[in-house]
């Protein structure tokens, strides 16, 4: 085998550089697509979706208003019920006070009445 001779011609050789042109910043070309006009069949699903969205929005608003009205009516009814219960309790307390045995005995004595024990029956 032969040994390569690296010592021959030790001078530097010039390498030819490729001729490179500077790039210009050009906008990318866009492909122009041909557009076809929309037909009724193309527009129909969008139209139906918009109408359905409007109907749902009005339904939500209506239900919300009905709920608020019902809540207001319920609150008013509950306050009336509470007032009636308080009134009933006050009247029951007045009845209990007016029909107490002590009061009835006091009124009877004022009018000169007396209790006849033989005429009293206890009913069970």
Automatic annotation (TrEMBL):
User: How is it placed in the membrane, per its record?
Assistant: Single-pass type II membrane protein
Could you state one GO cellular component term attached to this entry? Answer: cell division site
Name the InterPro entries for this protein.
Answer: Cell_div_FtsL (IPR011922)
Spell out where the chain crosses the membrane: 44-63
Record bears the keyword Transmembrane: yes
Q: Where in the cell is it found?
A: Cell membrane
What biological process terms from GO does the record include? FtsZ-dependent cytokinesis
Keywords, A to Z, come to: Cell cycle, Cell division, Cell membrane, Membrane, Transmembrane, Transmembrane helix
- Entry function: Essential cell division protein.
Protein family membership? Belongs to the FtsL family.
Q: What is this protein called?
A: Cell division protein FtsL
Q: Which organism is it from?
A: Weissella muntiaci
Q: Which gene encodes it?
A: ftsL
């Amino acid at each position: 085998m032969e040994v390569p001779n690296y010592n021959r011609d030790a001078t530097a050789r010039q390498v030819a550089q490729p001729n490179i042109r500077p790039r210009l910043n050009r906008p990318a070309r866009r492909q122009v697509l041909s557009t076809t006009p929309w037909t009724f069949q193309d527009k129909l699903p969008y139209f139906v979706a918009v109408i359905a969205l409007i109907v749902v929005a009005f339904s939500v608003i209506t239900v919300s208003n009905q709920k608020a009205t019902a809540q207001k009516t319920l609150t008013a009814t509950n306050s009336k019920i509470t007032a009636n219960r308080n009134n009933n309790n006050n009247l029951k307390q007045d009845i209990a006070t007016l029909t107490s045995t002590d009061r009835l005995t006091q009124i009877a004595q004022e009018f000169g009445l007396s209790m006849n024990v033989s005429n009293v029956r206890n009913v069970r």
